[in-house]
Every structure is written in C-alpha cells, then in structure tokens.
Amino acid sequence: MARYLVTGSAGFIGSAVARRLIESGNEVITIDNLSTGHKEIIPKGVTFIHGNCQDISVIEKLYTSRLEAIVHIAGQSSGEISFDDPVYDLQTNAQSTLLLLKLAQKIGCKKFVYASSMSVYGEQPDRPTAEDAITLPKSFYAVGKIASENYLRIFSQFGITTTSLRLFNVYGPGQNMENLRQGMVSIFLAQAINQKHIHVKGSKDRYRDLVYIEDVVDAFLRSLDRVDNEFNVLNVATGIKTTVEKLILKICQYLPFKPTMEYSGSTPGDQFGIYGDSIKILQVLGWKPRYSLDDGLRAMVEWALQNK
Amino acid sequence: MARYLVTGSAGFIGSAVARRLIESGNEVITIDNLSTGHKEIIPKGVTFIHGNCQDISVIEKLYTSRLEAIVHIAGQSSGEISFDDPVYDLQTNAQSTLLLLKLAQKIGCKKFVYASSMSVYGEQPDRPTAEDAITLPKSFYAVGKIASENYLRIFSQFGITTTSLRLFNVYGPGQNMENLRQGMVSIFLAQAINQKHIHVKGSKDRYRDLVYIEDVVDAFLRSLDRVDNEFNVLNVATGIKTTVEKLILKICQYLPFKPTMEYSGSTPGDQFGIYGDSIKILQVLGWKPRYSLDDGLRAMVEWALQNK
After folding, report:
1. Which residues contact A191 (CB under 8 A, 6 or more apart)?
2. pTM over cut 0.90
3. Residue A90: which of B98, B102, B138 has the nearest Cβ?
4. Which of B87, B132, B137 lies nearest to residue A95, judging by beta carbons?
5. Domain extent listing, chain A
6. Binary contact (A142, B150; C-beta < 8 A)
7. What does the alpha-carbon distance between residue B308 and residue B292 come to, in Å, rounded to a whole number?
8. What is the mean pLDDT of chain A?
9. Does the CB of B86 have a partner CB in chain A at under 8 Å?
10. Residues A140, B154: C-beta atoms closer than 8 Å
C-alpha cells in the first residue's frame, strides 16, 4: 500500500487510473478543477482537492505529503478547444506539469507519469509513427504537451523516473458523452444516441489508433513500476489504423437503430491520420493491448445505452 | 519606411536590430521590462513601452497599431538562470510569443520573426547540427523556445509568414558585460578585464558556434523580407566549431595583459558541444556570416576595453 497523487480523477482517464489504484489497496489523492470533470466520477475513497494544478497555492497543499508517485492526467484535453484560449491551455497543460515536477523534487517523490498525447506528432507519413518522429504540433494543446514532456526530461536529471505516455485515441465506458468537442468515439456515439444522426466534421478517410480505457490504465500502472531514474516517452497505441468510416460502421453495428450520417466542415488543429508504432512500449513496459476494437466498442455502446 | 515592433530593444540583440531598422528610415516600437536590459541602450528614436510581453495589458496597447512586422527578441536569455524560476521562464519565453502572435493575427500583421536558440537541440552528435535534428532541451529556457517555435508553426496557418532564428552563440560589441551568467564570450571577457582571472565552469573541450552580432542582425533583416506565409526555422550559425580553450586563447591574444585561468564546476543545463549546419539559411535567406572570429573578437575586445 502506498499513496499516489492522480490529478484529474474527475475525468475519464484519471478516474479509471485512480479506481484501479484504490482497488489494489492504495491511497489516492486527486486535484481536479471540475472544469469538464464531475465530482461524482471521482472514485470512492479518493481524497479530493478542488483546484487547478497550475496554481501554486493548490500545489502547496501537498508540500508535506509523502507520495510514491505522481500521475499527472488533469488538463484541458481537446486540441479543438485549445484554440479558444491558448494562454489557458499553456497554463493547464504545461505550467501544471512544471509545478508538479517541482513538487516531486521537493518532497522526494521518485516517480512521475504523464498523460501526453499522439497530437504531438501532427501530420506524419502513412505508417506507424514511432516515438522518435519529429513533433509537428497542430494545436495549442499539443504545444503544451510537448513542453511538459521536455520538463519531464529535465527532471529525470534530478533522480526522478519520468514516463510520458503518448495516448492515442482513448475510448471506453466512462468517457464524457456530453462534451461534443473531445473524444472521437464518444462524440460519434453521443450524437448517434441523442440525435440518431452523426455529423462528421472532416473526411471519412481520416484514421486513428483506438485504445481501450482498460488497456490505457494498464500502461499507467506498468509505468509506475519503472525505477531507472530516466525519462522515457512511450506510445500507448495498438498499431492498428482505423478509418473514421470504419469506426462509424462498427459503432452502428452495435446500436439497436440506424443513425443518419452527414459529412461536412472540419476541426481546427485536427490531424488527418495517425496511428502508433507500439514496439517500444512492449519492450520497455511489456505492454500490449488486450482488448480488440470490437470488444471495446461493444462494451462502450452497451454502457452508453444504459447510461443515457 | 514602415513601422516595426522589436521587443527587447534594451538588450544586446534587440537594440542592434532596432538600430539598423531606424538607420534605414523605419519607425520602431519596443516593449522591454528592463529586467536585464538598460533604458540607455534603446536606440534613439525608438518608441519605448515599459512592460512584460507576457502581460496582456501591455500587448493591448498595440491593438490599434499597424505593424509591418513583429520581431520578438525579449525574454530571459540564459539557460542557467531559467533554473531559478522555471514558471517565469515559461511565461517570458513562451506565453509572450503566444500573445504577440495573437496580436499579429488581430491587427493583420503578416510577418513575425522570433529569436530562438541553439539550446533547443541539447546534446547532439559531434557534427554540424541541422534544423531537422530532434530537439532535446536541457534547460527550462530551451523548453520555452521550443514551445514558441511551435506557436509560430500554428500561426503560419493563419497567413502569417513566421521565421524562427535559432541563434548560436552571439557575441560582439554591445553585449551585456555585467551579467556573468549569460553569454559565453562576454562572461570570459568581463572576468578577464575586471579580475584578470577567467573562471571556466565546465570543460575546456566544450565547443560552440560563435556568431558576430552584425551577422545576426543581417539574418533578422533578411527574415523580414520573407513573404511565403509559411513557417521556417533557421540556424544562425557559422558552421565552425570553436572550443572553449581556443576561444579563451583568442580573447587573450587581443588583450594587453595575460589573465590567470581556472577550470572548475559546471553550469546547469549547459550543452557540452554544439555547432550548426548553416546550409538552410543560405538557401532560404541567402545569408552567410561576413565576420571571421578573429575580426569579431578583436572588435569586441577593443569595445570592451574602451567601455570598462
């Protein structure tokens, strides 16, 4: 049993990571500003600090804590939304990481795992993108993620084992079905269920690498076992390319009705296509996905229909 | 004749760029917080706004201006100092760029030139480093510079021609001889003149690419002629590798006395060795250095002795 800080536990991924840690008998503290998350989502037993991770007055509350590890997941999580207020995005997605790394250094916490994103890559050639690809961010969100990764590299010099997980398109039960600007699977599924109509902003030929939430949680937990005092950046990806068209066909396959379809417009900062090379994470963490897209989507559609 | 905003004109590089623009009959506005710069250094004729470029209240003063171009040079300029207050560094070196790019977008300014740094590269193999090398920043300063470059890439989508100049070790008359934590040539020269003793924090085998201030100003002016609405990142480098040992020998050669020497300690975030590939800037801007290291150092030592 150990004590962890998992920021953003009122959100989709943070709550799933916190829950698994609690279930294994650990103590979990979270910081969340509830800007997109909901208090009810925070798993039972988690100590909740309401506030922004980019505010030093919030971080100071932990100056006397002992933490086994910091898992930083909080942050504005949409490339599209980052165009609304780029300065806020820099603060929530980069300044926050800096303050939390300084906290780790101050209190002698030796492990730090960060939720980065495949968005750091921007447009890449049509092949699995590996971690050593040049980063070509297209959104303010992605700029902050890169800055955070660079902070992790610097703090690894101070004896902290830092892992940056570049999450590809995460989906699954628990995803926010109300935010129609974040999460490709949840956006399409929410539209299908609520309006019986799916409006795709962009080409049906765009493609993504879809990773199921439980597999993502596994990647976080395995990162917590690293002890080498080094910085590592790892794709959390399946290596499988799924087009928007194929994704929607599969979603519809598990729905008990047939939504109408519309393709028009585009999304600022959107990547055309990206999927990940997953060799490094297998080598470093022994991680590979356990859930197929069909299994994952079936579970998610079922959950969404039950919770609408 | 046109109107330019040149931030940081109370500093070494900013004042040199502003002076050249004024001499060619242009109008120049500057923003400077005088944190390390001096008001007297601002060239005559420049309109001075005292403040931080990361403060929206300062930037708002230009909301009704018409500007031919924005040249953003202001910012904390030392990798070493960035370890003192990393959050301030993020604000001065990244948030400032974001606000100035938004200003350009708002007022229809179509050109933006940014003073980036060779520090974005971190440790690289012992060969001329080209612009497509992977960035491995070792200081908080360098993290902010990378974030700024990424902002420039994003804003080029909005019809702004953006150029990021990765300045290698700039030296020459006008360099701050009082800040002993910034500028390799000025640090050694100031020590030699003031204490007749040079204390080198780090190995004598470290190496750098030394670029003379007048050549650097040329690179800025040539960047102002770009009109392609694209983002370009360019090394401002000679392609010549100079070791710390050789640099000090040359400085001493032009001094009328012989300083004593001491090698001990190290500098946080310091790169061991770096020199730049200068092919791209020749292709894109037709730029190549006009001053040899001997000519440049002779002029600088002469200036420093006259102004001590």
Report:
1. A180, A197, A198, A199, A259
2. yes
3. B98
4. B87
5. 3-171+210-239+276-290, 184-206+241-275+294-306
6. yes
7. 24
8. 95
9. yes
10. yes
